[in-house]
Design a protein that fits this description.
238 residues, alpha/beta, Rossmann fold, 6 helices, 8 strands
C-alpha cells in the first residue's frame, strides 16, 4: 500500500488533500505542529498523526523517524505547510519587517528543504517515489506578467517571492534526483486561513476543490511528469 506524508495537514488544503488520499486507499501520515488539532483531524479522516513543525530540525527528524519505525515506508511527500504574514497596521497588506520575511521563508522554503532532506532515505526505498511542493501562481514569473491571470494584479512581494523559490527548489530537486518525481502545484485561489485570518477568511474556492489537483500530482505514476509546475488545466508557465 502506498504511504503519504503531508505537512501542515490539520486544516485547509492539507487536510482536504489528506482526505482525498485516504479515500484513494493510501496510508496517510497527517503532519501538524499542534498535537491536539492534528490528532483530531487524523482521527476524523482515518489517517495517522505525526507531530511535525517544518521550522524545527529536531521535530522534522523525529517525525521521519516515527514514520520509519512504524514500518509503513514512504512513497509520497506533500510539502504543503506554508504561511503568509499580514501587517498589524493594515491586515490587507503584507508584513515587511525583517523577522516576518524570515519567518515566511523559513516555513515556505527552508521548511521544504528540511522535510525533503529528511524524507529522502525513505523515498529512495520506494518503487514509485513522488514529491509534491505546493507553490502558487504568485510565484510564477509567467503568471505575474500575464494580464489575464489574477496573479498579475495581486501584489505579494514576500509570499510570491517565497513561492518562486519553491518552484526553483522543485526544478533543482528534479534534476538532482531523477529517480523521484518532483512537481510543483498551483492549487488555485482557495478560501483558507492564510495570513492568520479566521477560517475561510482568505477569498477563493473551497479547499476541497483545490485539493484535487494536489492529490492528482500526489498519485503520479512511474511514467508521470517530473520537474513541472501544474494547475487544474495542466502545466503552468514558470
Amino acid at each position: 500500500m502506498t504511504t503519504a506524508l503531508i505537512t501542515g495537514a490539520n486544516k485547509g488544503l492539507g487536510k482536504e488533500t489528506a482526505r482525498l488520499l485516504v479515500e484513494a486507499g493510501l496510508t496517510v501520515w497527517l503532519g501538524a505542529r499542534d498535537e491536539a488539532r492534528g490528532r483530531a483531524a487524523a482521527e476524523e479522516l482515518g489517517a495517522r498523526f505525526v507531530q511535525l513543525d517544518v521550522t524545527d530540525d529536531a521535530s522534522v527528524a523525529a517525525a521521519l523517524a516515527t514514520v520509519e519505525e512504524a514500518g509503513t515506508g514512504l512513497d509520497v511527500l506533500v510539502n504543503n505547510a506554508g504561511i503568509a504574514r499580514r501587517s498589524p497596521a493594515d491586515p490587507r497588506a503584507e508584513a515587511m519587517e525583517g523577522p516576518d520575511v524570515l519567518a515566511v521563508f523559513d516555513t515556505n522554503v527552508v521548511g521544504i528543504v528540511r522535510v525533503t532532506q529528511a524524507a529522502l532515505p525513505l523515498l529512495e526505498r520506494s518503487a514509485n517515489p513522488v514529491v509534491v511542493n505546493v507553490s502558487s501562481a504568485l510565484g510564477s514569473f509567467w503568471a505575474t506578467h500575464e494580464p489575464s491571470r489574477p496573479a498579475s494584479r495581486f501584489p505579494a512581494i514576500v509570499y510570491g517571492s517565497s513561492k518562486a523559490a519553491v518552484s526553483m527548489l522543485t526544478v533543482q530537486y528534479a534534476n538532482a534526483r531523477p529517480g523521484i518525481r518532483f512537481n510543483a502545484v498551483e492549487p488555485g485561489i482557495t478560501a483558507t486561513e492564510l495570513g492568520g485570518g479566521s477560517p475561510g477568511s482568505h477569498p477563493g474556492r473551497p479547499a476541497s476543490e483545490s485539493a484535487r489537483v494536489v492529490a492528482r500530482l500526489a498519485l503520479t505514476g512511474p511514467d508521470g511528469p517530473t520537474g513541472t509546475f501544474q494547475e487544474d488545466a495542466g502545466e503552468l508557465g514558470w
